[in-house]
Amino acid sequence: MKTAIVWFKTDLRLHDNETLIKAIAQSDQILPIYCFDDAHFETTPYGFKKTGSYRAQFLIESLKNLDENLRKIGSGLLILKGKPEVEIPKIVAEFKVHKVFAEREVAFEEKQTEKLVQTELFKLRCELETFSTSTLYHAEDLPFTKKDIPDVFTVFRKKTEQDASVRAVFAKASKIKSLSIPEMNLPTLKELGLTTSKMDSRAAIQFKGGETEAIKRLKHYFFETKSLSIYKETRNGMLGEDYSSKFSAWLALGCISPRTIYQEIKKYENENGANDSTYWLVFELLWRDFFRFMFKKHQTKFFLYSGIKTDIVNSKSLNKKFLSQWIKGATESDFINANMIELKKTGFMSNRGRQNVASYFCNELNMDWRIGASYFESQLVDYDVCSNWGNWAYLAGVGNDPRKNRYFNIEKQANDYDKDRTFRDLWLQ
Q1: Which CATH architecture has domain 134-166+211-299?
Q2: CA-to-CA distance for 422 and 429, rounded, in angstroms?
């Protein structure tokens, strides 16, 4: 019998999952796995835990939900812990697996792990087949080759919208012939080297991981509240559950796919009418695509101080006092402080807040932007490698911003977006 492994990573869903569908079609029996990679729980060179407790908790919830959904159709999820290039080959050898199906990676460290796994599988005469499942537009459908993707978003967007189309979603798998999978055994936060962080009751939204919750959120934001129709007007808000879609955490772990969201936007437009707001959410999904394709093109450059520019020398050193004040929300700016306290106590911050605190870090505190990006990596519940590092490089002036220096006037921003101080009063009390 042909036995295949489906290696789940940041595609923790049954809907629109090409990897799973192709594995089922090409195999007699399936073994779904997830590996807690030790490297994801180490301390980075910048001194922060790579994965903090908010994101780890969200991941654990998402895996529980994936296991529940898989068991409903005859399977389950086997949990591994260690180095994927060590743990996955062990399972391949034990169950005589002929092929491993997985999501295709784009960022450097993830690509390195993928190559290590592939090398070890080759020794066992087992193939690794990967699929591009994380973007709205499929990489093969773009109107440019990888090396020719424009570095300016507007150029990329216009050409892509004009010459490419979004593929249809894959139907949800209805039945899986699976090996017998024992009850799921997840590591605790303590076993991952983390402490439990209870989300503050003031949080804009109480995130809960999993595909079931992702679909629930989409239905709420689109069809129950019709918030999508005013998204463009409200997206720069900072308070409450519905000023923005809040899909980012579920997108980051692939609990929902961009194409599923796109499909539902089209359905919503048919029922409620299309406007600038319904388009703007597609526009934001395109930004997400853009950063992923930039990482495919530029690879390690987004982790260098000079980013994708070549003429910038790192002249900034670490000021431990300033860094500590920024993290604790004890800077000279109450607007920055409120945002940083929200991040520390909830693992989330509005898009407007993120731009301001990053600009403040780079321009006012004058520190190496990668330290700030690394702190966000640890702290954010919705951390996505491409969006996080791409956006930080952008704001530091070493990424895809066509303008030389994007400087935010923090006081003006505070007056524009928190005129009556409601946001600051909430988090600084």
Answers
A1: Alpha Horseshoe (1.25)
A2: 11
- Say whether 287 counts as a known binding-site residue: yes
Residue 68 in marked binding region: no
Does the annotation flag 408 for ligand binding? Answer: no
The C-alpha atoms of residue 86 and residue 239 are separated, in whole angstroms, by 45
Is there a binding annotation on residue 262? Answer: no
Domain with CATH 1.25.40.80 in the chain: 134-166+211-299
Residue 246 marked ligand-binding: yes
Residue 6, phi-psi category: left (phi > 0), alpha (psi -120 to 50), beta (remainder): beta
Which amino acid is it at 224?
E
Q: Measure the CA–CA gap between 332 and 231, rounded to whole angstroms.
A: 32
The answer to whether the annotation marks 324 as part of a ligand binding site is no
Give the class (CATH, top level) of 1-133: alpha beta
Tokens of 398: 């070493």
Residues of the chain with CATH 1.10.579.10: 304-428
Is 20 annotated to bind ligand? no
Query: Does the annotation place 7 within a ligand binding site?
Result: no
Q: What is the CATH number of domain 304-428?
A: 1.10.579.10
Q: Within the chain, which residue ranges are assigned CATH 3.40.50.620?
A: 1-133
Tell whether 288 is in a known binding site. yes
Per-residue pLDDT of the chain (429 residues; tens, 9 = 90+): 899 999 999 999 999 999 999 999 999 999 999 999 999 999 999 999 999 999 999 999 999 999 999 999 999 999 999 999 999 999 999 999 999 999 999 999 999 999 999 999 999 999 999 999 999 999 999 999 999 999 999 999 999 999 999 999 999 999 999 999 999 999 999 999 999 988 899 999 999 999 999 999 999 999 999 999 999 999 999 999 999 999 999 999 999 999 999 999 999 999 999 999 999 999 999 999 999 999 999 999 999 999 998 777 776 778 999 999 999 999 999 999 999 999 999 999 999 999 999 999 999 999 999 999 999 999 999 999 999 999 999 999 999 987 766 789 999 999 999 999 999 999 998
The verdict on whether residue 146 carries a ligand-binding annotation is no
| 284 has binding-site annotation | yes
136 labelled as ligand-binding?
A: no
Q: Rounded to a whole number, what is the distance in angstroms from the first to the last CA of the chain?
A: 63
Closest CA to 239 of 276, 196, 205: 205
| 334 annotated ligand-binding residue | no
